[in-house]
Amino acid sequence: MIKKTSIYSHPLVHHLMDPEAQKGIPGVLYLENRENDDDKKVVAEIMARCFAPTLITTTSWEGFHFVGHEIRITEAVDCYGAVVWPSALVLCYFLEMNVKQYNMVDKNVIEIGAGTGLVSIVASLLGAHVTATDLPELLGNLQYNISRNTKMKCKHLPQVKELSWGVALDKNFPRSSNNFDYILAADVVYAHPFLEELLITFDHLCKETTIIFWVMKFRLEKENKFVDRFKELFDLEEISSFPSLNIKLYKAMKKNPRSAGYPQSRAWKAKAISSRLLL
Ligand SMILES: C[S@@+](CC[C@H](N)C(=O)[O-])C[C@H]1O[C@@H](n2cnc3c(N)ncnc32)[C@H](O)[C@@H]1O
């Protein structure tokens, strides 16, 4: 029998979290417009959704409780996308707690930088048509986790597809067939050299009506400037903040092309494309 231990008390999780994140107390459930003192209570609730099996088996996994399901995620140690990051938990919790406002049933959803697939799995369990994407080397583990946790449990079986930011977007995701209601992204901004390409990808996948839910972990000043770049193209609304994790959850929609700043952004995009020949 597997004894479930909160991931808080499990040594495996320590590398995932800031030390402050482990001091919370369970409490209130709502997310929007919270005062900062609620932060630790909600963070504790979010993190309490994880558990690790105490029984040692040949295959290792970590467990998560969302949408009434036990989700088992296999992680790897060789790359960033191979562990579940706290931002993913924040996004899963948000999706589960806000189903009335943001109903996922039959919606077209794409996740970029899906990593181990937890967010895509939760969106699928909530009834969405999901496309989970990441770099080619991540897709095997991503597909494994998604199949294992969604088969016979979801209205629509999720798809797994390669999407390397900024690469062959017109070929693999032609604008004419992109019809996403939601774009999900957890912890996609950090010290990697593809921030421009990431922005191009958000822009490419987004129609006027698409809603982006993006969870950002604030680390270094250089990466944090990405938020300003992002605001040139998108109207950004901070939905929730978790100071103890240095995480913010944003909702964004494409700016009206006629609004201030957009032509500037177009110029930036043209420059980025011509300098890197990305598309
Ligand atoms: C910090 S991990 C977050 C993973 C997952 N969203 C989570 O929160 O657990 C960043 C993810 O972005 C992906 N990624 C990094 N650079 C990428 C690129 N150029 N194109 C596509 N995905 C990329 C990584 O493979 C990884 O899955």
From TrEMBL:
Gene: METTL21EP
Lineage: Eukaryota, Metazoa, Chordata, Craniata, Vertebrata
One GO BP: methylation
UniProt keyword Acyltransferase present: no
PANTHER family noted in UniProt: HEPATOCELLULAR CARCINOMA-ASSOCIATED ANTIGEN (PTHR14614), METHYLTRANSFERASE-LIKE PROTEIN 21E PSEUDOGENE-RELATED (PTHR14614:SF1)
InterPro entries attached to this UniProt entry: Methyltransf_16, SAM-dependent_MTases_sf
Assigned keywords, A-Z: Methyltransferase, S-adenosyl-L-methionine, Transferase
CDD domains (alphabetical): AdoMet_MTases
Name of the protein: Methyltransferase like 21E, pseudo
Molecular-function GO terms, alphabetical: protein methyltransferase activity
Domain of life: Eukaryota
Keyword Lipid metabolism: no
